[in-house]
Specification:
Elements (H helix, E strand, L loop, with lengths): L2 E6 L5 E5 L4 H10 L7 E4 L5 H13 L2 E6 L2 E5 L7 E2 L2 H4 L6 H10 L1 E5 L12 H9 L3 E5 L4 E5 L7 E3 L5 H11 L5 E5 L5 H12 L3 E3 L5 E5 L8 E3 L4 H13 L3 E5 L7 H9 L3 E6 L4 E6 L9 E2 L11 H8 L5 E5 L10 H6 L3 E5 L2 E5 L8 E3 L3 H13 L3 E5 L2 H4 L5 H7 L4 E5 L1
Parallel strand pairs: 2-15, 3-14, 6-7, 10-11, 18-19, 22-23
Antiparallel strand pairs: 1-23, 1-24, 3-5, 4-5, 7-9, 8-9, 11-13, 12-13, 15-17, 16-17, 19-21, 20-21
Helix pairs in contact: 1-2, 1-4, 1-7, 4-6, 5-6, 6-7, 8-10, 8-12, 10-12
The chain binds uridine-diphosphate-N-acetylglucosamine (UD1).
């Protein structure tokens, strides 16, 4: 049965919401736990479909994976009995590419179903493969089976300069190199918060990784790592989604369990549009308060690697700017095809034209409810932001995309005074 959301729009969001653990960190840290060779306890994991799917993947490989508390997973990789990760769940999930580094680093071999392209773009893994080869792995692509096979007696540290800045390749190479022989230097790396989080987790397991969060990461390989307990950082993209939704509904929302420095690019654009964004510390944790009382002003933005404006928030931000005064220019620099949400926003009365990687968003007075469908995870988030701010009722189909990455979304928005109901047919 297909599930959908019914949203009654036009309600001002007010109150407090607590952010969950970061999806993009979790989906890297779960496979990374294999490298410990012992039991790891992961805390603050979000309850989302992608985490559930990775749990299934690890179990199919032989690991013992159990929820010990609501947000806490114990992973014991000692019973992993196969390096054959060619089953369906692997190919269906982009982040399973982290098994390449984790299994190659742990067992010296892996056979992996290739993550396919997706609606936001081709998303090749050439930089991951280039890096693994530089560490001495033999990597074969079996295109007829859509499988990649990698093998190395012992990986050897190397200097790797990435051709492009890639979050996935940076993390995958950290995973592979932390048990390689000698030093690895990764240059032109991604600096996203979850890159740093994965490095912190690996260091907690006994790895030696320095420089995560800068352009150069240095890794000294260790023969053996060990188990640990680690809490995943709060989700930067979920935080941004609630910040944008607060502004889009002309609301007043306190967002807790956040790292404000991760949000600076988003806060800056929201403030430029006329919203008030205040950072605070209540003595126990940081929070952000977003208040908006008027129609937003248009702003221009370009998606960039961190610390620039994140591509994952381009879509929700566009939904917000659909009702701005004036025309906003949005340039998508990371993915070649991340404007699939535009035709859905147009159904709601938005005036957006797209030419290659540039969208021109001519603000309208208000959006109106419509029947629309998500085409990917963050497109889904954008349509929910649009639905919450629109006049009337919006139905968002294909919400399985949203379930991949947002924990308890309707409960969190409803607690803020929104109206989102899950249905199925
Ligand atoms: C990660 C995030 C995703 C976010 C993206 C960019 C996770 C699980 N997902 O995806 O939410 O939108 O970063 O911030 O963390 N590329 C290549 N060759 C490669 C690798 C990447 O050409 O080998 C290209 C991609 O097609 C894309 C760009 O580089 O155009 C950036 O991709 P990358 O940073 O690798 O994104 P992901 O790790 O897939």
């Amino acid at each position: 049965m297909k599930q959908f959301y019914t949203i009654q729009g036009g309600r001002r969001l007010e109150g407090t919401v607590t952010i969950s653990g970061a999806k993009n960190a979790a989906v890297a840290i779960i496979p990374a736990a294999i490298l410990a060779g012992e039991c790891c306890i992961l805390e603050n994991l979000p309850h989302i479909a992608d985490v559930q799917r990775l749990k299934t993947i690890l179990e199919k490989l032989g690991a013992k994976v159990d929820y010990t508390r609501g947000d806490c997973l114990t992973i014991d990789p000692t019973a992993i009995k196969t390096t054959d990760a060619t089953f369906d769940e692997v190919g269906d999930m982009r982040a399973s590419s982290y098994l390449l580094g984790a299994m190659l680093g742990s067992y010296g071999e892996v056979e992996l179903a290739l993550p396919g392209g997706c609606v936001i773009g081709q998303r090749p893994i050439d930089q991951h493969i280039k890096g693994m080869r530089a560490l001495g792995a033999k990597v074969y692509m079996d295109e007829s089976r859509n499988v990649v096979r990698a093998q190395a007696t012992r990986l050897k540290g190397a200097e790797i300069f990435f051709d492009i800045v890639s979050v996935g390749a940076t993390i995958n190479l950290m995973l592979a190199a932390c048990k390689a022989e000698g030093q690895t230097v990764l240059q032109n790396v991604a600096k996203e918060p979850h890159v740093v989080d994965v490095a912190n987790f690996l260091n907690m397991m006994g790895a030696s990784i320095k420089g995560a969060g800068t352009d150069v990461i240095r890794i000294i390989g260790r023969n053996k790592l060990h188990g640990c307990t680690y809490a995943v950082i709060p989700d930067q993209i979920e935080t941004g989604t609630y910040m944008i939704a607060a502004a889009a509904t002309r609301g007043d929302v306190i967002i807790k369990n956040v790292i404000p420095t991760h949000m600076e690019a988003v806060s800056a654009k929201l403030m430029e549009s006329g919203a008030r964004v205040i950072e605070g510390d209540d003595g126990r944790e940081f929070y952000l308060r977003v208040t908006m009382n008027e129609r937003p002003r248009s702003v221009n933005l370009k998606t960039m690697v961190y610390p620039g404006f994140p591509t994952d928030l381009q879509q929700p931000m566009m939904a917000y700017l659909c009702c701005a005064q004036g025309t906003s220019i949005i340039q998508e620099n990371i993915f070649e095809n991340r404007f699939n949400h535009v035709k859905e926003l147009r159904r709601m009365g938005a005036s957006v034209s797209v030419s290659k990687r540039i969208a021109k968003v001519k603000g309208v007075e208000a959006l109106r409810g419509a029947e629309i469908a998500a085409t990917d995870l963050r497109a889904g988030a954008a349509l929910i932001v649009a639905g919450l701010s629109a006049h009337g009722t919006t139905t968002v189909r294909n919400i399985e995309y949203v379930d991949r990455g947002y924990e308890h979304l309707e409960h969190k928005f409803n607690a803020l005074g929104g109206y989102i109901e899950r249905g199925s047919k």
